[in-house]
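Question (not urgent): is this output format expected?
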Amino acid sequence: MIKPPLDAESLRQMFTKPYGVAGPTSEQWRAVYAENVHFIDPTQEKHGLESYIRAQDCLIRRDDDLFLETRNVSVTGSLEFAEWRMGLKIKGL
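Got this back:
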């Protein structure tokens, strides 16, 4: 399990997932993110850890599978940035 503090490589591991491999668990998200996490992607903006975890759970439930490919990561003190590309196998399509 990935545990804090995160460095660039462990952050990259959190956001790299090939098809067919399980993604990070809710427990892993809770272990590495602050309660006041601010998450933005092209389709949503979430404030707070529980809101972020619910968004990830909804994404996983609506798809048969997904992949994440990390593009860029940066860790400076307690601030972390990850840029990734995602592919989805949407249920029923």
